[in-house]
Amino acid sequence: MKITSADLYKIDLPLRFSFATSGGRLASKDFILLSLTDEDGETGYGECSAFASPFYTEEFRDSAFLLLKDFLLPAILNQEIATPDQLQDLFSGIRRNNMAKAAIDTAVWDLFAKKNHQSLATAIGGNKKQVLAGVSIGIQSSPDQLIAKVRRYVRAGYRRVKVKIKPNADYEYLKAVRDQFPDLMLMADANSAYRLSDLAKLKRLDELHLLMIEQPLEADDLLHHAALQRELTTPICLDESINSLADAKAFLQLGSGRILNIKVGRVGGLTVARQIQALAVKNKIDCWCGGMLGSGVARAADIAAATLPGYTLPNDISASSRYFDQDIITPEIDLHDGKIAVPTKSGIGFDLDWAVIHRHTVEQLSL
Ligand code: MG
């Protein structure tokens, strides 16, 4: 396949509710939609999940836009690409910037799947007809407010609830939920809000039988996570720390946790996500797919990733209506009995809703 043109759309898609983490509050999901067209006129879609500011990784939307325009897209346009894996070689001169790379990787996988008349899940080697849906809840202003939200999502069918935490919005909040929902698959995500000196605080969470605690310490700190895991019975799951296959290997060797959250965007796309989950399967580590408040295009790639055999735990893949009044895909993603059906149509399996896309596009560029 030879990709001959690319279209970039900066989109500000309003969130139904603002979303608070230990890193800040978001009112809209600002992302880049990438459309790649090949010499036969077939089109693949990918999403760059980088947020408006670099609070999650070093990338932010405007940096990713420049990277795509000036470096990454020129490296792949008009090149002969037999399989999506080959992008890794074409990207080899450009360090990191994984969310920008993921936009291209996922769009090329979509294109590759469409040309082979396969669903994206089948094209990458997935083997599930449906994937388990979990929900992620931002930091609330009181434990009671949190309980009300948890109740709403449990009633909507979500099998696993993740609660964002930070110091002083942690134990009391989680304990209140655990008392109301003794059997719920409950987990916490700290987004690096703690230090190893908070050990006593974190150890106290062991009594709540959480499924896991995600990224308690800093992103660049596999060593302290290993020290912390030796002290906790709750499994540590790493998210921001794992940006590559090499990071996953170091995590395993050091014992920095027992579970991996493999986000397609954070690791640079489906190609590397596949490699990491294969490593996890070999080493009997459970994985699941995290999200970045992505629109339906990112979520379609997440659904495909979650069909891979290494993804064993419920994923942060929720219905479109969890975040948006109107998603950019049709039909919107919905869940039934805590599960999302894997599309069987070729490629990502959804059509794009161009009316919604054009309404919320703030900048567009064609290459
Ligand atoms: Mg996380």
Describe this structure in words.
It is a single chain. With 367 residues, this protein is α/β, with parallel strands linked by helices. The chain has two domains: 3-118 and 352-366, Enolase-like, N-terminal domain (Enolase-like, domain 1, 2-Layer Sandwich); 122-351, Enolase-like C-terminal domain (TIM Barrel), CATH 3.20.20. 35% of the residues lie in helices and 22% in strands. The protein is built from 13 helices and 15 strands. The chain has helices at residues 61-76, 87-90, 98-115, 120-124, 143-155, 171-180, 199-204, 222-231, 245-254, 270-282, 296-306, 320-323, 354-360; strands at 3-21, 24-38, 43-48, 130-132, 134-137, 160-164, 185-189, 213-214, 236-238, 259-261, 286-288, 329-330, 339-341, 351-352, 361-366. The protein starts with a strand and ends with a strand. The mean pLDDT is 95. The protein binds magnesium ion. Magnesium ion binds at residues 189, 191, 214-215, 239, 261, 290. Magnesium ion (MG) is lined by residues 189, 191, 214-215, 239, 261, 290.
Topology:
Elements: E1 3-21, E2 24-38, E3 43-48, H1 61-76, H2 87-90, H3 98-115, H4 120-124, E4 130-132, E5 134-137, H5 143-155, E6 160-164, H6 171-180, E7 185-189, H7 199-204, E8 213-214, H8 222-231, E9 236-238, H9 245-254, E10 259-261, H10 270-282, E11 286-288, H11 296-306, H12 320-323, E12 329-330, E13 339-341, E14 351-352, H13 354-360, E15 361-366
Parallel strand pairs: 5-6, 6-7, 7-8, 8-9, 9-10, 10-11
Antiparallel strand pairs: 1-2, 1-15, 2-3, 4-13, 12-14
Helix pairs in contact: 1-3, 5-6
Bound molecules: magnesium ion (MG).
Magnesium ion (MG) binds next to loops.
